[in-house]
Amino acid sequence: MKAFFQLVFLVCSVTAIQAQTKYKFDIDEPYFTIDTNWFAHEGDLDPEKLHSTPVFSGHELDTTFARNSDSSVIWYRSFLTIPDSLRSDAYTVKVLGTGNNKVYLDGKLVHEVNDDRSILWNYIVPSIYVPNDDSLHTVAIRSDRSRYSGKTEIQDSPTVMLFEFAKELRREVIIITIATAFMIFMMSAFLVLAFFHLTLFLFYKEERSNLFLGLFCLLFGSFFLVSMGKLSTNSNSGFHGLFSFVHFLLPFLPVFILGLFHSVFYGKLRPFFWYYLGAITILRILEFYEVLDGISTFISFIVSFDLIRIVIVAVRKKKPGSRIIGLGLLTSIIAVPLVIAGFIHSSTNNFMSDEVWVIIGILASAGLLLLSVPLTMSFHFASTFAKTNRMLKAQVVQVKELSEQTIRQEKEKKNILEQQKYNLELQVEERTREVMIQKKQLEEKNKNITDSINYARKIQHAILHSEEEFNDLLRQSFILFLPKDIVSGDFYWFHKKNGIIYIVCADCTGHGVPGAFMSMIGHTILDDIINDNQEVHPSDVLSQLNARVRDILKQDHGSETRDGMDITFAKFNPETLVIEVSSALRPVYLIRNNELIEIKPDKYSIGGIAQNGKIFTTNRMQLVKEDVIYFFTDGYADQFGGEKGKKFMLKKFQRLLLEIHTRPLDEQKKILAESHLEWKKDLDQVDDILVIGIKI
After folding, report:
1. pLDDT tens digits along 430-447
2. What pLDDT, on a 0 to 100 scale, did the predictor assign at position 237?
3. Of the residues 294, 358, 398, 479, which has the maximum number of CB atoms within 10 A of its CB?
């Protein structure tokens, strides 16, 4: 604990010892100062010979001796005799010094100081008991400067003081108790603050100010911890290495506070923080390897002034927390001169006059200096947390009220919805009954209409004749007739007169019932034309058919109907194999010798939009055996289907006819029907389909 006492009280370096003694006593003081002249010796000596040798060959100590000496070891010696007036009491001797020193009394080692280079400057060598007899006692100090590269400074006037033993012992106990309490308090306070703020940062990393404040407190708390451990153990303990490491980090303290202020006032780390951090890191590394010395401390002072500037600007801008943080910084600034004044007073009086109260004042000022900023920051965080907590409580109350209001509204809404649901269910039941009645009525009407259409189909089929009748006229032939609906707008017609066979393939406007009406009109008109004329020419037939359709539908008298038909009329002589074809918008395909020949139609239809000067032409061709001729409407080629849902198209229809034209006619019909079903698959049929094939 006496070694610990050295850390707290900062006394001057041990320097030299005088060779002869003069005494000055002040009986009103608890100590007596001995003024002597000191001599020093460069190089190592045998401690036992110092007392027996009356002559100490060396140099008289002055203010430049130690600075100019190149020796790593210097001996200092003096002689001490207790005056007769003081021999009735027990006394101890104290000398002042710093460094790695060994103190010898009468050739025996009585104390050893192993001092690493500390941030504190002077130490008091602990009491050395001197026998109170009339002997001449030798006091010698061996100073080892090898660890300081010759930089150890020596006091101008070394001091040896004589203390009353009982008073000195009581004084040391009091001072050590005060100092120990202060160190434990500071260590505990900083470590508790560090643990608190670092824990907050771990759970809420967005608030980086807790990180910097926690690091600041952790470094200071570690400093007090390792300092106590270093001074309470021997020089080879691990605390000395930890103390050196913590001492290496001390210049980073202002940087931590700078990061703290940036986080609080700016919400982010500005570039100057990184500049300062990088500069101090590089400088400390260079100082560690003794390339530079003391520059990092200078940078730390610059950072400290920047901290003051940041707080002043924050206070002027009235940023949250700036006043309380500024108060803490101002308290630290005020505490600095108080600490300095205490040390000056103590140095002047050698820690001996009213020292307990002076030490208490110094420690109080130091505690105020070190703790003011962390405590005010913690107060600011606590205040911010309290405000946030109050806001959250208010919001919780508001949310609770809104929740209760929402629950009430939801209950009201639920009741309204249940009532509406009940009313709707009643309405649905009523509507359902009405719909069921209407459905039943519609089913009855639909059945009647369907029955009527089915009956119309029978009539249409009866008028159109059958495929068997067509096969009786032309044995090698087929008719593929696929109405889209029950009745069809496509129709075929054939008639034999005077050995000539007349064939019609027609596509009326629309399909279903409207188309069926048009097919009946066309069928009736064709019967009339053939029966009324002895000589029939296909082009004349189409001209008469066009005129009569327009007349029946009153298309020339303002009627809005535009119905009509696309039609092919063929006149075939089975004896001569001559065929005459007249066609309105429907081509005819003739396949001969595996080549498809297209008989092109006229570019206008029967009926529909009026076109002046409709003149239908007749194509006359001589057929030969094995020729195959096809009449067809547009329904087959216009069917949608395939993988992409597109139309079948005439090109594909032509290729299909070329592939199957050599096969028997009934097989051709089957292939055409199957190809149609395979193409459309699940799609609906888009139009009536009619294909007539004849092989010569």
Report:
1. 888 888 888 888 877 777
2. 53
3. 479
